[in-house]
Predict the 3D structure of the following.
Amino acid sequence: MTPTVPTVPATALPSTAGLPAPPEAPPTSPTPLPEPSPDVPSPVPDPMQPSPFPLRVSLAPQGSRPARIDGAWWPHSRDLTAELPALVALLDVYWDRITRVTVNPAHWPVVPRKVQVAGHVVKVGWFAQEQDPHQLMLLSYRTGRWDLLVIPPGTPSDTAARLMAAAVDPRCSSAGTALMDEAAARHPDDRAAEAGETVWESEGGRGLPPGAGPMTSRATGQ
């Protein structure tokens, strides 16, 4: 036997005929955001975020390391805190985790004691005499040491390209400053890339970073 479904008479349903239409809601406008207070400092860049600038680096192929340097780095500025995280993050992949970086303070106005890289902290030190002013030294607890030629940020792109290629040439036997001098001798116009650095040093830029203490021994990974 098929069950029957009860039906509701149409007259039982409430009718809206003759009733006024409901009032329309007044249009709403987005709540304006408060203006930033001039006393509130700008947010500090997150060191865990990637750099907005492309990383410019050339590395010697594994198994064919040059005698004196392992590649070249062309930073966008002389700000180690801003420039090092992207470089170290890349080298962590190629050369194992980098634990320490050292520079010569001649071309770096401020040398931080450490920089934050994705996943770990890298210690930063300096040598005023022992280290070539145009080189960056990187150390790993487990793997060893690497040296990169540092190309001045204001170097013309064609000059930087020649230096990057020379730095990874297996026949290269020159250190950073010598390599820069050799390139300038072959291309005299390249010396203009160092003009700004020379003026900066003559005006007092060269010297020890503020608050830094001298290092008397060669850096190690410890």
